[in-house]
Amino acid sequence: MRRFYGINTVWICTFLGGPLVAGYMMSENFRTFHKVKEANKTWVISIIFTLLLLLFVLFFENVDLFVRIAHFTYTGVVYWLATKYQKEDIQQFLEEGGEEYSIWRKIAVVLIGAFALGVVAFMFFAASFILIRFLS
Where are the domains of the chain? Predict the structure, then answer.
């Protein structure tokens, strides 16, 4: 049986795990609803957004404030997008007997997503540090 991530699950897990988690969960939902094109677009957008977010962190002096504002903002945007593009499909899927993923899978996705974001951030900042040292 195909399963899905509910809208509340998507935004809560995005808040806890970052934008890559949003990309994964929304993409999986689109695949469940047989919308492969939208699933692929979702991945591309979430990866580009994550890289842009990391790029902006390099240029802001008050990084802590920027990260907090960005964190709440993209979580709100993800909630809005999930509601706009997946709410009807989720309701129809539920009426047809569809089920939501287990809590354990959700926890695993958050942990893996947060770890992946940490690895990408480390690589991004290490590369920028090396580039700055090389150009100086």
Answer: 3-135
Residue reference for tokens 């709100």: 76
* Of the candidates 134, 40, 25, the residue with the CA atom closest to the CA atom of residue 90: 25
Contact 21, 113 (CB under 8 A): yes
Contact 57, 71 (CB under 8 A): no
Residue pLDDT, tens place only, 19-72? 999 999 999 999 999 999 999 999 999 999 999 998 888 777 778 888 889 999
CA quadruple 94, 104, 27, 71: dihedral sign: positive
Q: Give the amino acid at 107.
A: I
Q: How far apart are the first and last CA of the chain?
A: 57
Q: Which residues contact 28 (CB under 8 A, 6 or more apart)?
A: 4, 5, 39
